[in-house]
Amino acid sequence: MNVVIQPDRVVQTALVVSLLCLGATGPVNAQDPLELMDQAVQSERRGDMEAALGFYDQVVSQFPDDEQAPVALLRVAEERLATGAVELAVEAVTRLREDYGDAPSAAGAYVLDGVMQLAAATGPDDLREAWNTFGNAVARFERSRYPEARWRREARMRRGHVAVLLGDLDLAAAEFLAIIEDEPLGDQTAEAQFELATILLYQGRWNEAAEILQRVVDRASVETASDALTGTSRAARRRLSLLHRMVLRPAVGMTPWTQVRRLQLPTEAREPIGVAASSDGRLLVADDRADLALLFSASGELVGRSAEQDLRLPWWGIDGEPYVLSRRAVVRPFGPASGPGSANAAGSVTFAVTDGGGVDRLDDLRAGARSSLGEWVILDRDRRQVVRFDRDGRYRATVVDRIRDQSIVDLDVDARGRLWLLDGEQNHVLRFGFDGTAEGVRVSHDWRRSEALAVDSLGNVYVLDREAKTVDVFGPDGAAIHSVGPVLSDGTELRRPRDLAVDGSGRLYIVDGDPAAVLILE
After folding, report:
1. pLDDT at 334 over 70
2. How many domains does the chain fold into?
3. Residue 454, SS3?
């Protein structure tokens, strides 16, 4: 699980704001903390969070010595952090650690501290600090004294995710394995199994990973006695499909895709230039001539359209949100801005580079992506640069400078936070580590006109050759796996392919302008 946490900085302030101002008021002279907690829960169920916070606050203020007080205080901290009230969240977390350090809920304070550190992280050192903070919840709340501490499991899960970003897969595997073997069976067990299987896939241990993923699916099917699988089990099923398509079938000389479907675009679509796929198969299509961004459900139903001008390539963020580039901004066409850095009040974010004391606004964006920590990575054709910006669009660093004309043509960021660049002039794919370190050429090929790049969750690389009208697929080691086009398996001919995408199951999407459609290979 890769989560972009929106609050972008932690303001360490003195406890000058009383918890009495945290929400609406409840019964002033209640004598039973359990009664207040029940009213808080009922208020939450009705969707009245401010009233719930008022009840939680009264538990803390009127019954500070009761065992419900730290539980209520932690709930206040969680909600304030979720709504971006970081200072109030810090106050609640600080009081929880200082006044209720031995209560099980205090483990949650360390986890929330780590979450806020991740939200402000800009590099490996910040990640290691957050990793250590999560470690406090593990070390201080060991199972012998706190057998049911769910926050300890959450801390281990977070440590595993951080270790993946830092590139220490063995350390990540150890954290996920500890949840599976050392913690009580719970909702996070399946998630830990999924993450452990993902680590094994990164290491090329396909058989072991497939066994674990199948156990996740089988267990969910038995427990629900239906096909209504959990989010984790659905993700495991998609990962098994991807493994089957991109590893097992090619290993025995079979094509990854056996069928072709055509997703017909609405009549107003004129020149689709980009497509992006979510892990579960939802699609975002950008049409430049029609000035439209189109959103499709996983079943192919058109569920949204947004008028946007000067469109460029879209992408589906690791935060689960669809984004599309215009010439001068990143646009979030479906859904309001939510939190710092996702977009401004108008639903877009612009970028400027500080250069020699001056400020130069980027106004010819070509491609973009968003990292695991919420950073923006933007390819600008006018400046001929690939540039990193923080969550709020502030300049951080130039990754690649003075790109030759038409050299870097596309980019992608994978689930491990690594940046991939497609160099259309040199005919190769470059990779940069999470910390920005250049890792060299990962794929080379004799393309005629490489146009678009995608990387799936296993690290397989997909490149569209616009002139040859083909898609070439390479494994994580750079070895060729498969190639499709210019004629697909059902006889469909690629005429004007412009972009491609791949979802979590390994379905391949190719946007073609003649006629305007998205071709789905599955």
Report:
1. yes
2. 2
3. strand
